[in-house]
Every structure is written in C-alpha cells, then in structure tokens.
Please model this.
Amino acid sequence: MRPIDATDYMGAAASRGITIAIVGKVMWGSIISEWASLLLRWLHVVAAIAWIGSSFYFIALDLSLKPRADLPDGVQGEAWQVHGGGFYRIMKYLVAPSQMPDELTWFKWEAYTTWLSGFALMVVVYYLEADLFLVDKSILELTPFQAGLFSLASLALAWLLYEAACRTGLAQRELPFAIGGYLFLVALTYAFTHVLSGRGAFNQIAAIIGTIMVANVFTLIIPNQKKIVVSLIAGQTPDPKLGKTSKERSVHNNYLTLPVVVLMISNHYPLLYATKFNWIIVAITLALGPVIRHFFNERHAGRKSPWWVWGVAAAGVVAILFLSAAGPREAKTAVLSAQPTLADVEEIVMSRCSMCHAAEPVWAGIVTAPKGIQLDAPEHIDRNIRLIGRVAAWSSAMPPGNVTEMTREERAVLAAYLEQAR
Ligand code: HEC
Model:
C-alpha cells in the first residue's frame, strides 16, 4: 500500500476508464479481505468458545471427581451433575475401561478449527496488511515480507523449543518449568515489541501461546489417546505413562488459557499495545492469568478458595492501568512554545490521518473511512477528539505502523491540547 497523490487522480481523468478499472480492483480486494476477516473471525471465536468451553468443563469435572466404594474397577471417581433438566452421573477411568465402548466421543476438532481459522485470520489481517499492522518503521525498518517471515519463523521456533523442553523431561519438574516458561515468554515479548509494531507483537505472542496449546492436543494428547485405544483393542493394558504426559500438557493449556484470550482481544486496546511499557503489561498479564485460574482450580477441587488471588489480580490490574498511562513509546515531553490550539490539532490530523479517515480516502487499499471514523473536517476532528487522544496522543496506535510518519512532537501537541481542553 502506498499513498496516492490526489493530483495523480485528477491527472488520470483523461484515461478515466483505466483509473476506474484500477480503483475497482483495489476496492474489490479490500472488500473481499474485509469479509474474509469477518468470516474467519466469526469461525475462530465460535471454535475457541467450543474448545475452551469443553476444556474448562473437563478440568472442573476432573477436579470434582469423588472416589466411592461401589465404583467399577479402574474408576478413579465419579461426579454428579445437573444440567438442562437432567441428572448426569459421570465416571472417570484412570487409564481405560476393561472393554472398549461401542461409541466414543473425541474432542479435537474444536482445537484444530481454532488454530486453522486463527492462522488464516492472521494471514488476512497481519500478513496481507503487514505494512499497517505488523511493521512499524519507527521501531524497525522492515519490509512486509521480512516482518511476515520473522513472524512465521519465530512462531515455529518458539513452539519447537517448548516441545523440546517437554520431551527432554524438563516439564516434569513443575515449578522450575513454570518459571522458566514464564521468563521465556516475557523475553520473547520484549524481543517482539522491538521488532514488530506493538499490535503485531501482542498478536505474535498470543499466536505462539495458542499454537503451543493446539499443538499439545495435536502432537501429544490425541496421539497418546489413540495409542491407549489401540492397546485396549489388542487386549493389552495401556502404558499409564501415556495418560500422565497428556495430563501434564493439559495442565499447561489450563494455565495458558486466560492470558491467550486477553492477548487475542488486546488489539482493540491501543493503551495496552501501543504504549511505552507494553511488554511489561504482557509480563503482568502472563502472570495474572495462571493466578486467576488457580482460584477456580482450587474451588472446583472442593478445597478452600484462595481468596488472596483477587487481591493479587487487583494489584496487577492497577499496575497495568498506571503503566498504560505512560504514553507512547519514546514519548518526549516536548517543550511547546505556546499552548496548542484546535487549529494546531486540526493541521496535524489533516496531514497525518485524513488520507485514510475521509469520506473518500486517498490511501491505496483503503476504500471507506476505517471503522467509520472521518477526520477530514474540523467538526469531525472536534467530535472525535477523545478517540484521537487514545489512539494518537496517549498511545501510538494510529497511524497504523506510523505509515504517515507522525512525529513525537505532534503527539505531544495533541496530548497538551487534550490536557487543557478537559
Ligand atoms: C494508513 C491509513 C490510516 C491512517 C493514516 C490513520 N488511520 Fe486510523 N485507522 C486505520 C485503520 C485501517 C483502522 C482500523 C484498524 C482495525 O482494523 O483495527 C483505523 C482505526 C482508527 C480508529 C478506531 C480505533 C478503534 O478503536 O476501533 C481511530 C480512532 C483512528 N483510526 C484514528 C486515527 C488518527 C487520529 C489518525 C492520525 C493520527 C489515524 N487514525 C491515521 C487507518 C488509518
């Protein structure tokens, strides 16, 4: 995508037919990618609800199982539940029943669909529009291709490192593994926020965690389950180690769920991803998710609820709130010669934003004002002033990837204007 000079447009009036054909092509490309993005996001969210929903359900079920005297051989415990007008009595066989049931329900396509739709969505949003959402030239000069390659390679590498750590038995030592894994993710986040745009970096770390979780289902949990079924059919006793390693991975997934969800929706919140301490915000989030999960795990297991969790969570959220108020990356308290006026703000917005945010945008690839926000006239700018503050003064989310090269001083002028206006 590159800016189209409005005068080029006029000049092309002579060859009007060609111009319209080109505009038509750009427009259809844009419209199709917008719809692809909606359909994939819809599928992704629905699949993720089904996956995480069943995963939360099974964790809670597992924790609530109670041993009783009259249970069949090999049964660890049972649980009674009531739902939708009926009572359910559920038993868990530690490895497997002595005989295979005729019908067995597997839970795997929820996870696979979540990953496949998520990856496709990432291609449509972050790879095909890498210049807007993945690259930020004020962070690092990358071409869209380099940024895409970096994203793919780091995704694969991070997953391989995790997989290797688990396979070499490191994961059996739970606490050191949890601490090591946490530091690994924070280090990755720090690196990503210094290579990609803030938004791209948050999505990248979320994609890595999501990939690890789905890969746990695909490469270990389901294959182990299949091996168990095969040995049962052959009349052998399955290796109990298979179930144990699966459980290990499902515990990892359990603790990663809350952070991955909040990181996935973080792209709606510029104050998180496009401010100075964005990587510390991720570090806190990565710690808070498991702590909150711990509360529910203890509760579902019927143990004493660890209420302290909410104190820690509240402290973390307050810390994030203050960190997000630190302003854009490398913010400078510019020495302004005079109090900025609305006219100064308008001049900045007209020159840095209105090429996209106009009734008829002149930025190639943008066919309607993004999110319906027009910033091409004083009254529109005045009306949207708080939104402008959130995305361009207190954070550097807009212009996306800083494509129109807004300067720190200009952000400082916007911030100073907002400060005095309220
Ligand atoms: C290159 C084109 C482009 C430029 C320049 C640009 N924007 Fe945007 N803007 C977008 C796109 C694309 C989106 C939609 C982002 C998305 O899909 O999440 C957007 C979204 C927004 C939103 C809505 C955010 C939300 O919460 O949904 C605001 C507000 C905004 N821009 C303000 C600005 C301001 C202020 C500037 C100038 C400092 C600016 N934009 C410059 C393309 C642009």
User: Anything to note?
Assistant: The chain has two domains: 102-324, 330-421. The pocket of heme C is lined by residues 132, 349, 352-353, 355-357, 363, 366, 370-371, 373, 375, 387-388, 391-392, 398-400, 403-404, 406 (CB under 6 Å).
